Fold each of these.
Amino acid sequence: MAENGPKFVPKPSPVPARNVVPSKGEPERHEAVARPAPPTAHEAVQPGTRRRFTASEKLRLVRAAEAAVASGERGALEALLRKEGIYSSHLSSWRHQFAVGGEVGLIARTPGRKPKLDAKARELLAVTKENEALKHRLRIANALIDLQKKAHELLGLALPAPSEEAS
């Protein structure tokens, strides 16, 4: 099948040559310059650590806040918060902790779930579980013995006399 008209053939795209010496009569080619990679927009910076307040620091700040409020001076509490670099929500939660538990309430607790059982309670639970398993096995054994007795009665076989070796 012959087509009328010019046939379209794409031209090859020029590829910049590296370290190529031009031959005579050929125009000079520009070499691709190796540029260093641009610096990243974000440098790797380690995240800051959270401030941790001891119970004595919390107590000092709660008492200082009470003194600032009692002074009646306008903006005294806000100035204290700015000076110490804490939020009013910190102070609010510490006041609540102090009101509920006193100085002991300000002691930091470890994050996460509280353990449900201590070592003694876990041991008791394990022994109770084992006891229940043994009771279950005993019920099964007694049911099997009863079944054997009924089978002997139905078949008319005499049961062996209990021996005194068991005692």
Amino acid sequence: MEKEYLISHPSQLNNLSVFPLKRNQSIGKIRLGGNMLNNPKVEFFENLLNKNYYSCGCSEGAKGLVVGLILGFGFIIYKYIESHISIINAIVIILVSFLGFSIIGKSIGLIIANKRLKNSISEIKSVWPPEKEHYENIHCG
């Protein structure tokens, strides 16, 4: 059976993030509960939420990797034409551009993915009025 994470109040949506240090990796499929179950678009919103929550920015990272390789090789060709460049320097330039642009691409991808997730959360909250104030794990007495 697939693990599920039930969100029973719209305030719980605020805890969702795609950023690795903020994201709980093991929550499983996100399900919407509470009075959201009465909404005819609940399945659409669950699919949208899961798609955006599990976005990783990999396609932008791959694009950054390709850009880094192209620019690295372009720079090496330029340096070779201008003056000879050693093999060691060429390898270092390729690795630095490859790694640097991959990291930049992945970071941009995560920022875009998190923006999409926050937009989805806003859309869900606009049609999900809270029943009452929700306080998690507060015990008095």
Amino acid sequence: MKTILNCIFVALGSLGLRVEAQTSNPSVPIYVGAYSVDHEFSIVTDECMKVLRTKKILLGSRSWGLGLGSAMGRVDKKYEVNWESFHAKGYVSAANMFLPADLFAGPKVVQYTLDTSKNRWLYMDDFLRKDPWKFGEKIDGCLQLLYTVGDKNMEDYFPILDALIRDYPNVKFAVCTHHVNASGMDLRGNEQKEDSAWNIYGGAYSDQVLARYYGKVAIFDLRDIASTRPDGTVCSFESNGKTYRKMCPEYNTNKDMLHLNSPDGSKRLPKGFLILLTKMFCADLIPKTLVTPKPVQLK
């Protein structure tokens, strides 16, 4: 039986190595979107939190992941995990892979911040596979949030994720959809448009994540969480005859146009993260009657 945690790796592309289902029960896809955040948080019980605190998790991210594992703990101590961030030490890069090899002597969630190089998704591959780390043999899971930052070659990453799934059967992997931005005038007086590359190209990327991995690998639908209100209505726009998502404006009150930072919005991703881990590691504690709707893009 697989006994591990998640690796939220995002990527785009084809080239497929065959991906075996990674869910505890392959007939029940592990999927966390806005519906889960707004209706399923009750499954994150005290009993499950005890389980999650025994896990070793590696998180590579940009700014959206900095406080992901610790934010709920700041709201309520019963959701706190042992969280260690390396962001203060700078950005991980090909020339600066500064995580210590003995990092996972005990259970914790470790976050490091990626630089913006084109091959930034390869750092996690190195950390899992190579000396002196070989974290793939030590951790319970990993989470990687990747965004397009001017480059459009993330198609190369899907095969890397598939190979990790194949080579580390004792690790439960998960994949994340793409960040979306809000539209309007930002703090610097610049207009952030809804038809940005993050929303257009990132939207196409997210669609591929859902189509490729739903029912096979746990999915953290960041796009859906950021673009859907608690009442189920979505924030979207039309471009060239197609509908795309954007961040709901009420989630971004300081107008940086990038982050969920309102009092309610700032809780959405941490809640989703904990629900995801619960579905991956506490399946036996979740009511059998729980039914999570399929993402609308796949209906």
